[in-house]
Specification:
Layout (H helix, E strand, L loop, with lengths): L1 H4 L2 H12 L2 H6 L1 H10 L8 E7 L3 H12 L4 E5 L6 H6 L1 H19 L15 H25 L2 E10 L4 E6 L4 E11 L3 E3 L12 E2 L1 H4 L8 E5 L3 H12 L3 E5 L12 H13 L3 E3 L2 E9 L2 E8 L5 E6 L1 E4 L3 E3 L32 E3 L10 H17 L11 E3 L4 E6 L2 H7 L3 E7 L4 H5 L6 E7 L5 E8 L2 H13 L4 H5 L9 H12 L6
Helix pairs in contact: 2-4, 5-12, 7-8, 7-10
The structure holds flavin-adenine dinucleotide.
């Protein structure tokens, strides 16, 4: 490690100082460099095979993959922790709160009928947040370990292009350095899209980041946007006792990818859990005054106006690529109309050795999509070929029950004029779901009318997020619904509902 990172002169200086004894060693100029190296910094402008700007899922996975491929690699991250949005303020903390708030809610409302009587149940929000922070810290430290294992130099600072091969880094602990890369990959991620006129203070008017760290349960919460992030956060705070209203401009929740049958069922279930919805409704303005946030609402198609008040307002209207301060102007790379960095199929910008992966370019803003691109981008650099099937990227909403889908939904097939078969199977008819007293939801499968090739799978139900892996594999391998239907599934499992939905797509389900 010392040999690979320290310049040769510095190596010699440290070596001779160390021979002269400990007092000499600590004053040697190169000792300072060595200490920096020990803290995980690279130390000088040097040539790397690959430099990653951004240590989120896209950046850190690409860095590890590059290390595994024997490339000399550095990863620049400004946050002071690896893992990006996903680990620090996204997937992981939200799933921690979703899991634990669900347990709390279940203990309060769903144990008596199971023969479990519990005494006083109290929420300790500070402890719930601590549990979340511990999960996050453990995982981010895990990536640091993987960096060391795969010989990735971790540079803590903000990177900006000085030229096409050189990145200037403003170090987190002060000072600057430069790194040169034969290949440079931009993986700077995304940020919450602001709502015009509503100033985010992350206490009363919050993005998902603030919603993951509230210090007390707000009496009322209003969520602008009924997409996945909005509904996950709405679920957390509603379970913990807040009165939550979700305002959605479109006529259905879950965002455009969610099949409308599934979205309708999801909305009903979430309403039963206490969430309130206003669909086809536009927030026209908002302001925080005193202890409340007031939003003015209007029917999306114009007309009726009303005001809604809450102690906390979550702005969850989407995310936008983040490229601020990257020095793109120094290399002449431009953004498209949605602020995405433009790339070709091999993730190359118009400067071929500069590539882009993850949230800051095209495609769904999902951690597993970023991860796939990271591996493929390194393979393109190293071997000249890579693979990501954008037709088989699953989406999961981790509410209770979970909602998951992969491939196309019914509306998309109709719009494309594709003739299809539909098969469904409800969890009310699945023995495991019945045993677990968790029968909400269904599996819906769509296959090509002529060839029976599976085109889309949509699930709402317990563990849908795990079950969708089978659907994704089926889609990836071009399976027909008959292929799945003739595959033996263990009994009693929730996955049998998946098999029966396939049976109902090409023939008949047995149990419904
Ligand atoms: C609340 C929430 C929940 C989510 N849940 C899920 C989920 O369950 N499943 C899922 O698949 N996705 C989820 N996502 C989306 C997921 O987090 C992102 O798709 C994923 O993090 C994208 O990875 P990335 O590496 O492209 O970007 P990011 O994770 O945003 O990482 C980019 C990194 O680059 C750093 N950076 C930026 N500019 C510079 C610079 N100039 N120099 C150095 N560093 C820089 C940033 O500090 C950041 O750490 C969620 C997002 C949110 C907000």
């Amino acid at each position: 490690m010392l040999k690979t990172i320290l310049p040769r002169a510095a190596q010699r200086s440290v070596l001779s100082a160390s021979r002269a004894g400990p007092s000499k060693l600590s004053t040697a100029p190169a000792y300072q460099i060595l200490r920096q190296v020990r803290r995980g910094y690279a130390t000088e402008a040097e040539d790397y095979d690959v430099v990653l700007i951004g240590g989120g899922v896209a950046g850190y996975v690409a860095a590890i993959k590059a290390g595994q491929e024997g490339m000399k690699v550095a990863c620049i991250e400004k946050r002071g922790a690896l893992g990006g949005t996903c680990l620090n303020v996204g997937c992981i903390p939200s799933k921690s709160l979703l899991n634990n708030s669900h347990m709390y809610h279940q203990i309060l409302h769903d144990t008596k009928k199971r023969g479990i009587e519990v005494g006083d149940v109290k929420l300790n929000l500070a402890q719930m947040m601590k549990a979340k922070d511990e999960s996050v810290n453990g995982l981010t430290k895990g990536i640091e370990f993987l960096f060391k294992k795969n010989k990735v130099d971790y540079i803590k600072g903000t990177g900006a292009f000085a030229s096409e091969h050189e990145v200037r880094v403003n170090l987190v602990d002060g000072g600057e350095m430069s790194v040169r890369g034969k290949n440079i990959i931009i993986a700077t991620g995304s940020e919450s899209t602001p709502f015009p006129g509503l100033e985010i203070d992350e206490e009363k008017v919050v993005t998902s980041t603030g919603a993951l760290a509230l210090k007390e349960v707000p009496k009322r919460m209003v969520v602008i946007g009924g997409g996945i992030i909005g509904l996950e956060m709405a679920s957390v705070w509603s379970r913990l006792g807040s009165e939550v209203s979700v305002i959605e401009f479109l006529g259905q929740i879950g965002g455009p990818g969610m099949d409308s049958d599934i979205a309708k069922q999801t909305q009903k279930i979430l309403q039963r859990q206490g969430l309130k919805f206003k669909l086809n409704t536009k927030v026209t303005s908002g302001e925080a005054s005193g202890d409340v946030v007031k939003l003015e609402l209007e029917a999306a198609k114009g007309g009726k106006n009303e005001t809604i008040e809450a102690e906390v307002c979550l702005v969850a209207i989407g995310r936008r690529p983040y490229t601020a301060g990257l020095g793109l102007e120094n290399i002449g790379i431009e953004l498209d109309e949605r602020k995405r960095l433009v790339i070709d199929q091999e993730y190359r910008t118009k400067i071929p050795h500069i590539r882009v992966i993850g949230d800051c370019t095209f495609g769904p803003m999902l951690a597993h999509k970023a991860e796939e691109e990271a591996v493929a981008a390194i393979e393109y650099i190293k071997k000249g070929f890579g693979h990501v099937n954008y037709g088989a990227i699953p989406s999961v909403m981790y509410t209770h029950p979970e909602v998951a889908w992969v491939g196309q939904n019914e509306a998309e097939l109709k719009e494309a004029g594709v003739k299809y078969n539909v098969g469904t199977f409800p969890f009310t008819a699945n023995s495991r779901a019945k045993t677990n007293l968790e029968t909400d939801g269904m599996v819906k499968m769509l296959s090509d009318k002529e060839t029976d090739r599976i085109l889309g799978i949509h699930i709402i139900g317990p563990n849908a997020g795990e079950m969708i892996a089978e659907g994704t594999l089926a889609l990836e391998y071009g399976a027909s619904s008959e292929d799945v239907a003739r595959t033996c599934h263990a009994h009693p499992t929730l996955a049998e509902a998946f098999k029966e939905a396939a049976m109902s797509t090409y023939s008949h389900a047995i149990h419904s």
